[in-house]
Design a protein that fits this description.
Length: 92
Amino acid sequence: MFYVLEVQHFQKKEAGFFYDGDVHMGYMNKVFRTKKAAANYYDLHNTHMRKLNTFDTWKSDWDPVTRYRYVVRDFDTELCLIPSFEERLNRD
């Protein structure tokens, strides 16, 4: 089995928004052989955050700046369009 990181965005109730909670953004363009490898990848690129699997949920905390959260999911041919952390660094 393979794994991917789902990216979620937290939206607060604001003018024009009626939803308060996590919104599925997509899947990161990187596939991992194990859940632990996916979590380690997140940890390596998010040193300002608590480790992804700190509470054995396979979910990161919400980033206070980006409002993103990453969740380890089973890979089942999902379309993975969100750039990996390396791809983002190479764009900047």
